[in-house]
Amino acid sequence: MSETKALANWVVKNRLEDIPEDVRREALRAIVNYTGCALGGSPDPAVNLAMQAFAPFFGPATASILGRKERVDPLHASLMNGISSHVYDYDDTTPKNYIHPSSPVASALFAYASANKVSGRDFVHAFILGFEAESRIGNSVYPAHYDVGWHITGTAGVFGAAIAIGKLIGLNEQQMIWAIGLAATQAAGLREMFGSMAKSLHPGRAAQNGYGSALLAHAGFTSGVHGLEGPRGFAAVQAAKYDLSKITAGLGVDFDLRENTYKPFPCGIVNHPTIDGAIQIHQANHPAPESIRAVRLRVAPLVMDLCNQQNITRGLQGKFSVYHGAAIGLVRGKAGIREYTDESVNDAAIKRVRESATAVGDASLTEDQANIEVELASGEKFSRFVEKSLGNINRPLTNQQLDDKFRDQAVLALPADRVERAIELCWRIDQLADVNELVQQACEN
Amino acid sequence: MSETKALANWVVKNRLEDIPEDVRREALRAIVNYTGCALGGSPDPAVNLAMQAFAPFFGPATASILGRKERVDPLHASLMNGISSHVYDYDDTTPKNYIHPSSPVASALFAYASANKVSGRDFVHAFILGFEAESRIGNSVYPAHYDVGWHITGTAGVFGAAIAIGKLIGLNEQQMIWAIGLAATQAAGLREMFGSMAKSLHPGRAAQNGYGSALLAHAGFTSGVHGLEGPRGFAAVQAAKYDLSKITAGLGVDFDLRENTYKPFPCGIVNHPTIDGAIQIHQANHPAPESIRAVRLRVAPLVMDLCNQQNITRGLQGKFSVYHGAAIGLVRGKAGIREYTDESVNDAAIKRVRESATAVGDASLTEDQANIEVELASGEKFSRFVEKSLGNINRPLTNQQLDDKFRDQAVLALPADRVERAIELCWRIDQLADVNELVQQACEN
Lengths: 445, 445
Known about the structure:
The structure is a homodimer of 445-residue chains. Chain A is an alpha+beta fold. Helices cover 52% and strands 7% of the residues of chain A. In chain A, helix 19 (399-410) runs antiparallel to helix 20 (416-427). Chain A is built from 21 helices and six strands. Chain A has helices at residues 3-13, 21-41, 45-54, 74-86, 102-115, 120-141, 144-148, 152-168, 173-184, 198-219, 234-238, 245-248, 272-285, 301-306, 315-318, 322-332, 342-345, 348-355, 399-410, 416-427, 436-441, and strands at residues 63-64, 71-72, 292-299, 357-361, 370-376, 381-386. In chain A, the strands form two sheets. Chain A has a four-stranded mixed beta sheet with strand order 4-3-5-6. Chains A and B meet through helix 3, helix 4, helix 9, helix 10 and helix 11 of A and helix 3, helix 4, helix 9, helix 10 and helix 11 of B.
């Protein structure tokens, strides 16, 4: 059986009872983390500008966007949820493939559920299936696909959204195969966009186009039936090397949700160990910013590939600057949303420390590790080696830390009492008769 | 200056007076051909199903779809025009890069012009700029990009639509650079979809997403500024080999529109020489279908790559079967839209002749050439060598043949008197004060 057909078959036949209990629990953590990120990003200029650009094209106002008061059609709500939830680069990651997996899937699902009655059980089930399919498809083409320059969150994400919505609307196996094919032929998103608003467009379009793929397939709009494995299909075209067996091996037994991680810092994950080390030095040694003469970083080579920007002026660029990560950790002892504003990037003390930093790639370090050395004008030196960064699968955020992270973001969009109610509903989303109960709490209405 | 910036600069500064007269004339031929194709495809099931899938999401009904009575928002009109105009694979081609160039560009422009007042001068000017940019970007990545499996009409088309709409809405240079970046990060479409409805989705989405890219850029939504040439940009990610100098060499002097061709047959262009030869044998020798024992084809190797399907049951598959092309030419002496229906593919005589055919790739043949040999049960043989297929740049369709092709298709959507009026308006679209005058003739309202 082809991978496309096998995956479609699994999704169509799967029942929530087939999903292990620990996976269902991790799904709740992922949804809590996602919802906080969507709320935090919802007032961002990227969302405002996309709303402005597409307002004349919105369909009937049947759907809600998390964190916002406007009502739009569900496809545009998917797009906006996707932009919101990724714009701060604060959403979850599966380190094995660098996908931000929840954003494309949950952005489509929340848009759908805001316009249609969906039980929490069905919502969580569709989320798990979409997440799993997306991550497995990503595994099959990682790392060649990512290395050449694809933003895998966009390219794999469109499959996750198509499969999740396809499950909710009850696609049969043939329709699910078409939905996968239609997703494959819309898989897009370039890493060249990192540091611009377009990066957050990727999960937005993935959510919207995945949703649209399911709608087209449901109507009977055909695609090629070998979207994943065909000689001109997704894997062959978008990866110089790939292993399709990763899509189906252990399907239904092994779940990538178990390996999902939640970022403690709203920036490119490869910067996290550096920030972690910088915060540790701040907390232990309190070096005054003006006393810092040099900062020397040793990092995994991928960091130099992704985050080697030093001369920056915008908050978005800061997310992809390992130098900025070191500077805010050292100067402020934290790296929250306020450390990635334009103002923070142009703050004189942060700028000076950032510009005092040098970095070298070191192939002996994993992407969870970093070494940071700070030299003061006095000649005194402090250093930290971070072996496993906070947020790593072996040092995960606790549920309490997820709540704190949710609150820090959600207050940007909602009154405090509404934030608490939304957190509480998120944790028991699987028990809600109608997910709209949560959506309504999480919208500024 | 980077290629992205140079192209944006050229488009923003260009005036219609800068375009040579012969290029403007060819633009009219391209628009006539496009409009006939959009009308012919407009009642196709692929369009009906896409309309059905997206109807609940249509925005305010300000725009028209060529050939149809429904009014929708302009982005959905772009999508539907794109599907209509390509679903029969009858639209134009630039043989140097295999792009169907007009569909993504004109589909967006007609949608825009149906909802906004646009003069014929501005319309034709934006069309030429979009066409040219799209074709040049395609040239820069062809053939590696196409060979690996990208449907270049979708991937290059999104740039054409973004640039054409961007010109009409008056983007400045920075905005045009963003529009190009936003198009780059949405460039999609896999050749795996050939033979299914999803192939026609590609120019549809290219038109819709290109239009959307221009809208986002106009609002100030940023992208990376090296969408074309960046190390993780379009060319580097989507082509193993590329030559960016083809984007800017001779810009404003050499125009790919001069090399545009119009298909005499509604199927994959690489089948055309075979069909041409088969029709010649039909006309000269009138072999009775039941007398045909064997058909032997020698074709360019690419034909075997693209059109080596023999065991087929659907009209759409016939478009990518060189065997079917030979069979309809021999049996019916023509290859019009009616020869690519499901009924025709399953016609007993055509099926028998198709199944009697064999084909071999021959690297000594160009993609405009084919050799066909027919052997009768009597042992008698007829053969034809086609050196330059009808529709080739050296054997172009005349304006009269373009009119005939328009009529053959447009009668599927419009009453005969409306067809004649639409043809007449198309030929003088550059003189219309408002292109909507043509759109209204070309809509079933």
